[in-house]
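To: structure subgroup
Subject: Chain for Friday's discussion

All,

I'm putting the inputs and outputs inline so they're searchable in the archive.
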Amino acid sequence: MSAVLYQYVCTIRRRPLAFFGSMVLTILFAAVLGAGGGQLTVPASSDTLEEEALADTAEELSAQAGENIDLVPSSVTDMEERIRRSSPPYGLMLDESGAAVLQVYEAPETALLMTELQSYYRERSMEAAVAETLDVSAWRDRVSEYGFGYEVEQTEEGFAYDQALHPLFGFMLFFTIYSIAFSISTIVAQRHDGTWDRVILSPVTKVKLYLGHVLFAFLFGLLQMYVILFLFRFAFQVDFHGGFWLTLLAVLPYVLAIVSLGVLLSGMVKSYKMLDAVIPLTGVTMAMLGGAFWPIEIVPSALLQRIGEFTPLKHGMDLLIGSTYGGASMDAMLLSASILLLMSVLFAGIGFNLMERR
């Protein structure tokens, strides 16, 4: 087993870009699409509010949203022009009692926008209701002294979204598929050129040979993900919402599942060239169905969402999102981790069986 690991180390020294290229791509895509987690700058206009009232409402909304959203008062014409240029592809029409989102397409950022809007107008409606029956000044004094809280029963199913972390998690899980699968594909290459037949004649058992390849793929994929996570947390100062250390544990079952998937793909193909085509096809399909490129919740087809449940990437995203900004319960996270472990056992069992038959 140590000889197999040493072989991989020598290969990395000769071709470092082939192994670390996916890490560079992950950092590039996440940094560009995540934009460092900056504010959502959203143009806001109104057909009913005066200019001063529009500015006050936009300022109150921006203050309530904190660092998440910055509303910029604009005329209707200017806002529509910005939406047509997709800069950004959405805008707000405000009035006294509510707001409407104008958008070219259903951008995932609008989920955060709608959450802040609902919270803002909910509080305004409650203040208006209180003002009809109570003395407003006395009520505000009481709130400032004793505080004020309320519970909201959610009637519409929503989803959490973070414009910095979602691209980071999605592209990290996506490119890790390539890194791990192509590492495992070394077995296929050795079988194709006859090296494997000579190696199995050595005193080293097949179990140790397989274990060496699998262990390297697991450690390499895990190292790549840890480097990316530490880089974005401490170098780029991305906010992990207090769940950074939990993400380091959350990626473990996903890496194991992808290693097993690589074993399965290597056992299914007949040649290395076929594997070169199967891995990208599998990776892109999993990314689209699993919610790596966009939140899976915005996909209108319930069937596609259901199919996504059978991909490891979907459950990897659930673990990472749940441990950070998603606020998932421990039971939900354990369920996702259990599904990934079950996939690992199934993929590895079938994959090694197919390899031995060949």
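Points worth raising on Friday:
The two ends are 22 Å apart (CA to CA).
The chain has 15 helices and four strands.

D.
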